[in-house]
Amino acid sequence: MADEVCGPYLTNSTSTNAGWHTFSSVFIWKRAQILVAELWAAFYPASPSEPHPLFPAGAAIHQLTMFADYRVPQILHHLNIITYPPSLLKILRGQVMLETGCREELSIRSASIVAVERVRLAMLRLATEADEDDKREGEDGTRISSVLIDFYLWDLAKRVENGEESITGIATVPIEPVHRTRSIWY
Fold first, then answer.
1. Residue 174 resides in a domain
2. Tens-digit pLDDT profile for residues 151-182
3. DSSP string, the chain
């Protein structure tokens, strides 16, 4: 179902969020995915037994990745889930504007997508080990999804950056500035 909603949007879009990395195209469809995820979340039924009013057959939300923005990579780095080379840390700390689609920007965003997918898979494995009932993703694949992980991490990053919350119990690195780029895709 996510493909059915995103498809017309992507087909009718006049431009794409694409870049080149090692001789191949990289497409990041953040806006299309957010469209589906926000519609799904905004109209989510009060009871899980009720069908979704916009996606009665299921939104296939589990097919979406995280949204590859600037905030989630920041918290993933803080949590030691992704690491940055010293050269990139220097760029971030200097608040240097990255060119849209450059190697650094694509690397940060792509690493975040991969990292959140790995977090999702680890969560599914832990749920399976903990309790047979928890291993299910849900009837519509939404119990443990990259979309919900993205929502949580984005909010967590803001709270940590603003000093409203701190991470305890695990080793973290100092929270770094977000990467900066001028783009309509964020």
1. yes
2. 999 999 999 999 999 999 999 999 999 999 98
3. -HHHHHHHHHHH-SS--EEEETTEEEE--HHHHHHHHHHHHHT--SSTTSPPSS-TT---GGG------SHHHHHHHHTTSS---HHHHHHHHTTPEEPTT-HHHHHHHHHHHHHHHHHHHHHHHHHHHH-GGGG---TTS-SS-HHHHHHHHHHHHHHHHTTS----SS---PPPPPPEE--TT-
In a domain, 123, yes or no: yes
Task: Classify residue 186: in a domain, yes or no.
Answer: no
Does position 118 have pLDDT exceeding 60, yes or no? Answer: yes
Catalytic residue status for 69: yes
Residue 72 within a domain: yes
Range of the domain at 28: 2-181
Of the residues 3, 69, 140, 150, only one is catalytic, namely: 69
